Amino acid sequence: MGLGGFGMGEMIFIFLIVLLLFGAKRLPEIGSSLGKGIREFKSSVREIEHELKVPNDKQIHRTSPPPEPAVAANKGDGEPRKLSDNVPTADG
User: Fold this and answer.
1) CA 44 from chain center: how many Å?
2) pLDDT of the chain along its 92 residues, tens only?
3) Residue 76 region by backbone torsions, left for phi larger than 0, else alpha for psi between -120 and 50, else beta
4) How far apart are CA 59 and CA 47, in angstroms?
5) Would the N or C end of the chain have less CB density within 10 A of its end CB?
6) Domain coordinates of the chain in residue numbers?
């Protein structure tokens, strides 16, 4: 048994199906992009494992500061606005 339960017969069958679907000219291109994707994935996994094992001293984990209290908007004449200031009236 080879790769994850696939024997040599199954591997050849899968290769032939891929060859029929994509053609001989596209196989090297597909293999190359598949290899690049696998390398990038492994690199990302290694980077995450390294960050989990060795915490970076330069990283400071702080919570965000609490939001500042909202300032009441003024009408412009120094008096606070009222809820009724925004309600449209029947006369216009």
Assistant:
1) 13
2) 445 678 899 989 998 998 899 888 888 898 899 999 999 999 999 999 988 887 655 555 566 666 777 655 545 556 666 666 566 666 65
3) left
4) 15
5) C
6) 24-56
